[in-house]
What does this fold into?
Amino acid sequence: MKFICGIISFVLGAIFGSFANVLIYRIPRGESIVFPGSHCPVCGHPLSWKDNIPLISYILLRGRCRYCGAKISLRYPLVEFTMAVLFTIGFLITGLHVQLLFVWTAFFLLLVISWIDVDHGIVPDELTIAGVVIGLVGHALLGVPSLLTSLWGLAVALVLGFSVRFLGRVLSGREAFGEGDITTLSMIGALLGADYVFAGIFLGSIVGLIFIAGYYLVRRELSREVKFCPFIFASVVIYFLVSWCCNIFYII
It folds into this structure.
């Protein structure tokens, strides 16, 4: 049964990964996520269902548009595969529990936000606000204790986020933390709780420093602008895995 549910989680993740690609491409451009339907960004030809099968279509088409032969970005299958793996990991660790929905929502929104942040340097408010609303409403439906956990996570995210931003401005004279980073942390707090907010800030900073050091060793120059949302995303996933490992160790 668990194996079957794992397969279903992988398939669902790939499907949501396909939808994530739509959001990543269209939201920064101000386009509707519904109309028009899927089409080639080069020739504009509408894509049929057989061209939209997550992961499989990219392989069958050999990474090129069926109609104009234009190369399809590797990002599309990469996002689909990443989401499929994250959904599967979420299920294997959380199980068929209501918490899984919050985990999946957080993974989905963080992946979309991270790609948009890297490509365009923006964090769409409609995504982070949607995450906050889903977190608060979802936890409210589970009862007062769950809602208080969500509210506490949101409060911690706002306090820490603005504190880090203020300190960065005082110490370095420039923005150390953008508004998009704060709203992303707020979304995490509302969905997953305060622990993940701490992980997003502190563990995310460590992951970011490692990236900057690696970038310098390879390029021999410092990156002019570092997007923090991908590091927040990575830190949430790492903390999720580490928490599970610690629980297993405690049980043993």
User: Anything to note?
Assistant: The chain has a mean pLDDT of 89. Residues 144-172 form the longest helix (29 residues).
